[in-house]
Design brief:
With about 230 residues, the chain is an alpha/beta fold. The chain has one domain: 3-Layer(aba) Sandwich (Rossmann fold), CATH 3.40.50.150. About 35% of the residues lie in helices and about 25% in strands. Helix 1 packs antiparallel against helix 3. The structure holds S-adenosyl-L-homocysteine.
Length: about 230
């Protein structure tokens, strides 16, 4: 609930909307600048429309609301961060989401990446290892009206076998190697975006593709810095 009178609340919403538009312009600029590395000069119109729609300020701590639309990662508590908007857009674009898709996310965090995916696919399954973060994200997504998302508390190294296989998988914490369960839960013809590498520096954002024949290929997209994936055996 907003304590502001309706006209002021509307003005705040309009200002946040304008900031969101500028954020999307910035993402488009960065996509052009990184095209030689990523091979993608622009992201799909549907992905950009989703980035323009999701209220990122609702996914950050209220004290960070005014910074929500800067193209930076932001703290979401418990030492975790919400990824830079450009990275969220790139991740989403790379898995080529379609309306009928069911997508798995590892690392729910604030729920922001999940919300962007919810705008584009039929259902999002998201796994978070820190219970408090997962429950908070679940409530936040429900409060914003996202009813096509399921949150599970658990170790993403195991994926979410009950709903597999998936039309796409996005991993939003850096793994030292690709968890075998995730490869197994990827549909033939589907893609997984995953940051791979050591905890501190040297991570490569990687796109894994399972061919219709089941062959696995991988392509390095660009260097990144994600929080480490914990758990694992
Ligand atoms: N996608 C999130 C940002 C993720 S930050 C967003 O849009 O806000 C990375 C998240 O991965 C953190 O919340 C961290 O707790 C979680 N994480 C780390 N290791 C994990 C694991 N093994 N399984 C599931 N989640 C994990």
């Amino acid at each position: 609930m907003s304590a502001l009178p309706p006209h002021e609340a509307a003005a705040t919403q309009a200002a946040l909307g304008a900031e969101r538009d500028r954020m999307v312009d910035e993402i488009a600029r960065m996509a052009r600048e990184t095209a030689s590395e990523t091979g993608h000069e622009r992201f799909s119109a549907a992905v950009m429309a989703a980035m323009r729609k999701v209220p990122r300020h609702r996914f950050v701590d209220p004290s960070q609301e005014r910074s929500a639309y800067r193209n930076h990662p932001l703290p979401i508590g418990r030492g975790q961060t919400i990824s830079q908007p450009y990275i969220v857009a790139l991740t989403t674009h790379l898995v080529a989401p379609q309306k009928h898709h069911r997508v798995l996310e590892i690392g729910t965090g604030s729920g922001y990446q999940a919300a962007v995916l919810c705008e584009l696919v039929q259902h999002v399954y998201t796994v978070e290892i820190v219970e408090a973060l997962g429950r908070e994200a679940e409530q936040r997504l429900a409060a914003l009206g996202y009813d096509n998302v399921s949150v599970r508390i658990g170790d993403g190294h195991d994926g979410w076998p009950e709903h597999a296989p998936y039309d796409g998988i996005v991993v939003t914490a850096a793994a030292t190697r690709v968890p075998a369960a995730l490869v197994a839960q990827l549909k033939p013809g589907a893609r997984m975006a995953i940051p791979l590498g050591p905890q501190l520096g040297g991570q490569q954002f990687t796109l894994i593709e399972k061919s219709t024949g089941g062959r696995i290929s991988r392509r390095v997209i660009l260097p990144v810095r994600f929080v480490p994936m914990t758990g694992g055996k």
